[in-house]
Write a structure and sequence with these properties.
heterodimer; A: 244 residues; mainly alpha; Cytochrome Bc1 Complex, Chain C; 11 helices; flat; B: 206 residues; two-stranded antiparallel sheet; 5 helices; 3 strands
Chain lengths: 244, 206
């Protein structure tokens, strides 16, 4: 007499209608099933089924674009967690940050990850641009995707800049004061644009609320839309560019 | 590759070379090493490289355009490893290094030096050279526009650095100047935006 072992349990689970409705095919082991897996999965189908050989070499791209996108995802998740404990009000914001660091579960770790991840993202986006220039990957038919990339660089800087104010400490306050003072000197609409940005004549409650809304919803949404266009165009232009 | 037969050792460099004369078919000749010899003697002609014609088309004649690998597992493995590496790096860094948090914001207390975030410190440095309209508005606008128009300025199909020197110089100028002023603004500016050596005091926040 044989007793049912763990292998039998795996078999029962894998043959159950629930499992088979979740995973429509077994773990892919052949070229055909692997191709199907990439094509049929909503998350994987961002990729083509096959990629150029040089494209998977680490030293070709250094994964800089991918790392930038991954950091965007990490920042979205960590930022979402921080939003549960933060109120964009001049009387509460600073105390909320202190509370996140001191008494929220994993709050300190998540806040640090959000901060360091943001700095790293600015860096990787810049390095990605340099890599793309080095390979001449802005050449036809990829001209407009380079422009989209420059816009994404600008959006990354704006995302980082708007987030910089949110802790509402001295670093934040004066950095944003210095940064937004430049807007006053814009030709023609200088004072108006500064007022529009700050919601007043100096950094205050309106500024904090504006930067918060820009930081947590408006800019990420715009950046996500441009990322979709960026990735879509890579696919439509025949994958990443060839070596120099 | 276009190879032209060299007429003789003292070839006229200005001679028209549009229609290279075909090299005569070498007659089955004498054994022995092929050494440069007098013109016209079969088997001893010298040739020179006139031009290297770059491949511009995706369609290759002698090589199939199928130098590809499957996304699963090759690309997915690379992506997974990189995501794991960056996650690990970020968690470890965040575990040991705290994000800065100073005193609560106070419009009444001006710090010794108010610095923008590090990626704008180059701009702030330029602000100390030019008037604010130029430094604060025109420079960043032109910088971004200058980057964006690169594909429309450099219209050659070539990718090697030596074939697009002008755009390389333009791009490097933007990058190096940006890096330099950012570096100065970050580590060499102290109270009152005066020059401070890094070992005299660091006025830099992340």
């Amino acid at each position: 007499m044989t007793f049912p072992g763990p292998g039998d349990l795996v078999r029962v689970v894998k043959e159950s209608p629930v499992w088979r409705s979740l995973f429509r095919q077994p773990y892919p082991t052949t070229s055909r099933t692997r191709a199907l897996a990439v094509m049929n999965n909503v998350f994987l189908h961002l990729h083509p089924v096959r990629v150029k050989k040089h494209a998977v070499r680490y030293t070709y791209t250094f994964c800089l674009g991918g790392i930038s996108f991954f950091l965007f995802l990490v920042l979205t998740v960590t930022g979402l967690y921080l939003m549960f404990f933060y109120v964009p009000s001049v009387s509460r914001a600073y105390q909320d940050i202190q509370a996140i660091s001191a008494s929220v579960a994993f709050g300190d770790l998540v806040r640090n990850m959000h901060r360091w991840g943001a700095h790293l993202m600015v860096l990787t986006v810049f390095l990605h641009m340099i890599r793309v220039f080095y390979h001449g990957a802005y050449k036809p038919p990829r001209e407009f995707n380079w422009v989209v990339g420059v816009l994404l660089l600008f959006l990354t800087l704006m995302l980082s800049f708007t987030g910089y104010l949110l802790p509402w400490d001295q670093i934040a306050f004066w950095a944003i004061t210095v940064g937004t003072q430049m807007a006053q000197y814009a030709p023609l609409l200088g004072p108006q644009s500064s007022f529009f940005l700050l919601g007043g004549i100096e950094v205050g409650q309106n500024t904090l609320l504006r930067f918060y809304v820009l930081h947590v919803i408006f800019l990420p949404l715009i950046a996500a839309i441009f990322m979709i266009v960026h990735f879509w165009r890579i696919r439509k232009d025949g994958g990443i560019s060839g070596p120099v | 590759m276009t190879i032209e037969k060299r007429p003789n050792a003292t070839a006229d460099k200005n001679a028209p070379s549009q229609a290279p004369t075909r090299a005569p078919i070498a007659e089955p000749t004498l054994p022995g090493p092929k050494l440069p010899g007098p013109p016209g003697v079969p088997g001893t002609e010298r040739f020179r490289l006139l031009a290297y014609v770059k491949q511009e088309s995706m369609v290759r004649v002698d090589k199939r355009p199928d130098e590809t690998v499957l996304t699963w597992p090759h690309l997915l493995r690379a992506e997974f490893l990189m995501a794991a590496l960056i996650s690990g790096l970020l968690v470890v860094t965040s575990f040991y290094i705290k994000a800065p948090l100073e005193e609560m914001a106070n419009a009444g207390i001006t710090p010794h030096v108010a610095k923008a975030p590090w990626y704008f410190l180059g701009l702030q440095e330029i602000l100390s050279y030019f008037n604010p309209t130029v430094a604060g508005v025109l420079v960043p606008t032109l910088y971004l526009v200058g980057l964006a128009i690169i594909p429309y300025v450099d219209r050659t199909p070539y990718k090697a650095a030596r074939d697009r020197k002008m755009i390389w110089i333009f791009f490097l100028t933007l990058m190096v100047t940006g890096l330099l002023v950012t570096f100065i603004g970050s580590f060499f500016r102290g109270p009152g935006w005066n020059w401070v050596w890094p070992w005299e005091g660091l006025f830099f926040n992340l």
